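Q: what sequence does this backbone want?
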């Protein structure tokens, strides 16, 4: 949990099909490098109330919108997201958030058109759980106040699960405030185990394996709130 807060201390979502970015200089003969999907095609997604969002990977120019999205959150929502009350976001943390480490971190944003271009109304992210633990990632989800209860949180989480598997993670976990019923419901629908945290009755741990069969089954057959 500390690793997630320290590296991604911000509000930040999406679903899309990955495709390789083949641009760049040619490699010398005999040199082979590992490739990871670096770009996602934006997707227009219809939610349960008929509204639509564009789901895509986060980009550097989202920094300003991330700050604005945070400012629109209630104090309770900030507490649910960061597990402490926050008045503002650290600029350096925002910059880290819009520059995920390839193969370790990823973030999606859900956007809608706005007078200044876009507004971010939802976000999902994961980071490596800790040093020496390259098979487990920690996730966090944020949804704007008036975009809840219509399936966006579950769509973000299912998108994170698929992407995390592409990055080689075998397990995804997160910590959820015990009073955050909507997030716990989304985790339950996607077959996360939910268990208490020893010594802290205010927080629950959610965790699930990211095997191919289980991820495909839960993200294609489950409709979420």
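A:
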């Amino acid at each position: 949990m500390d690793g997630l807060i320290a590296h991604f201390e911000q509000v930040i979502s999406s679903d899309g099909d990955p495709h390789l970015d083949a641009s760049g200089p040619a490699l010398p003969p005999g040199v082979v490098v590992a490739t990871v999907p670096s770009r996602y095609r934006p997707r227009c997604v219809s939610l349960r109330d008929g509204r639509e969002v564009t789901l895509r990977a986060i980009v550097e120019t989202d920094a300003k919108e991330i700050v604005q999205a945070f400012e629109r959150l209630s104090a309770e929502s900030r507490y649910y997201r960061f597990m402490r009350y926050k008045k503002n976001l650290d600029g350096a943390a925002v910059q880290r958030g819009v520059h995920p480490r390839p193969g370790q971190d990823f973030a999606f944003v859900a956007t809608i058109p706005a007078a200044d271009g876009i507004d971010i109304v939802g976000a999902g992210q994961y980071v490596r759980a800790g040093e020496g633990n390259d098979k487990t990632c920690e996730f966090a989800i944020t949804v704007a106040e008036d975009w809840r209860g219509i399936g966006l949180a579950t769509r973000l989480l299912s998108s994170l699960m698929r992407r995390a598997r592409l990055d080689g993670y075998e397990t995804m976990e997160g910590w959820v405030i015990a009073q955050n019923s909507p997030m716990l419901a989304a985790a339950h629908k996607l077959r996360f185990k939910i268990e208490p945290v020893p010594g802290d009755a205010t927080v629950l741990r959610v965790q699930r394996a990211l095997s191919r069969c289980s991820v495909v089954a839960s993200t294609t057959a489950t409709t979420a709130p």
